Amino acid sequence: MIAVISDSHIPSRAKKIPEKFLEVVKEADKVVHCGDFVTKETYDMLEQKSKEFIAVKGNCDRFHLPNSETFNIDDFSVGAYHGTGINPRGHHPTLLRIADDLEVDVLIHGHTHEQETVKKQENLLLNPGSCTGVGGGSSTDGKPEMLTFEVEASQVKVELLEFDEGEVKKVEEIFEL
Question: For residue range 13-31, what is the model confidence (pLDDT) as tens digits?
Fold first, then answer.
């Protein structure tokens, strides 16, 4: 299982990631953070809790990270990108162009602070939302969100997670690729 988080903004806008989300991070085979840690300390904490950690640079990160990363799961290619510079934020045609440039089937991105799963053309776009629930850009403060996904045969099973009143609520979606 791959855990995906983004837009933590610690300590500038939030104090911490919910402990129940950190438990998911510890259980995951791989963790992807789509940027806007803000501090290297937040990056280091997540890297230490992860079996395998992939991270990309957000517009609020002031330490060295790559702008994008790619990896494979079985026969699928996955890319991670923050979303900086896309106007309007989360613009699907631009994200699809980035997926094409990275040559990936699945593009994980952040920056909007809003959870979203979209299948367009041959690509799946996944946005975990903000793992601390902070607002940003055009979004307002909300509930902390993240997602997990697994690839099985030609399907991607996505679980959208939302932290609400001390509990994690899950919604499952399955996509054919």
Answer: 999 999 999 999 999 999 9
